[in-house]
Design goal:
CATH topology: Rossmann fold
Mean pLDDT: 96
Distance between the termini: 39 Å
Structural class: alpha/beta
Strand content: 5-15%
Shape: globular
CATH superfamily: Thiamin diphosphate (ThDP)-binding fold, Pyr/PP domains
Low-confidence stretches: none
Largest sheet: 8 strands, mixed
Order of helices and strands: HEHEHEHHEHEHEHHEEHHH
């Protein structure tokens, strides 16, 4: 397949026009995910924003085969596809499960944990837009402290988001990584690597959401970059237990120029009711986690 200057596959697997929202961070990321995975791939997705992007049968905006499954069964569906392909001796096809944070952190965690414990050979991708955005912006366990959702309309969310990367790392997976659509080459490279590895691989994409986060659609890339530059999102990979910063986060770690969290939260309407104490709590949470990552990278 032809590649461009950055060695990115130039073939497009998302057709022009889909039902995603304007400025959707998921759609930006998904384009590069599919470019990295290429043709010999089968997708399975639950009810989610991604189902909307794919479209209603018999019309779809994506050219790679896809199975639609129930909300809780994404990893179970992927496990079944792997078993069926193995029975047919089709080891040349990669099975990829893609779910939002609701279908990963919450509703789908039991099937994912079971598959990861068994080491089932597929890639699980969580696109984390920090809420149940497809059904009206309800809070999930990935929603950050201080954010407004339709199920936390007065007091805002009172808990920090769940650290899903630590939970998945506890399963001793061969490969885990974080990514952002604001840094597409870093994202692309990680999916190329994940496709070459066997066993359960887990990748988490921070996916800015204009309607759910309440910012102008034109600012999606900017919001994604600020998430990384403030340490809210950290770009890294863990391969066979070895932690490495990647991309922009690696540069920030080397230069020590991480920005204050306020630069990120002040641009999003979902944080408009955040208290100063909550802002301080998030900053402490980010700083403590960042120091832990620095220690891991050093040693």
């Amino acid at each position: 397949m032809p590649e461009n200057l950055y060695k990115v596959n130039i073939h497009e697997y998302m057709l022009p026009g889909n039902r995603a929202c304007q400025g959707c961070g998921l759609s930006l990321a998904y384009r590069y995910v599919l470019k990295a995975l290429r043709e010999n791939t089968i997708l399975t997705i639950p009810a989610s924003c991604l189902t909307v992007l794919h479209g209603l049968y018999p019309i779809t905006s994506v050219t790679i085969p896809c199975v639609n499954c129930t909300f809780a069964s994404t990893a179970a569906s992927a496990s079944g596809l792997v078993a069926g392909l193995n029975a047919l001796n089709r080891t040349d096809i990669t099975v990829v499960a893609v779910a939002g944070d609701g279908g990963t952190y919450d509703i789908g965690i039991q099937a994912l944990s079971g598959a990861a414990e068994r080491g089932t050979d597929f890639i699980f991708v969580c696109y984390d837009n920090e809420g149940y955005m497809n059904t009206g912006t309800q809070r999930s366990s990935a929603t950050p402290l201080g954010a407004l959702t339709t199920t936390t309309p007065v007091l805002t969310k009172q808990q920090h988001k769940k650290d899903m990367m630590r939970i998945m790392e506890a399963h001793d997976l061969p490969y885990l990584a974080t990514a952002s659509p604001s840094y597409p080459i870093d994202l692309y490279d990680k999916f190329v690597k994940a496709k070459r590895i066997k066993g359960t691989r887990y990748l988490q994409i921070a996916a800015p959401c204009p309607p759910g986060w309440a910012y102008p659609p034109k600012d999606t890339v900017k919001i994604g970059r600020l998430a990384v530059e403030t340490g809210i999102v950290v770009l890294f990979e863990i391969e066979n237990g070895k932690f490495r910063f990647t991309g922009r986060s690696k540069t920030i770690a080397e230069r020590g120029n991480k920005l204050p969290v306020v630069n990120y939260v002040e641009r999003q309407g979902r944080f408009r009711k955040m208290s100063m104490e909550q802002l301080r709590q998030i900053q402490r949470w980010v700083d403590v986690r960042w120091q832990e990552y620095l220690k891991r990278a050093a040693g």
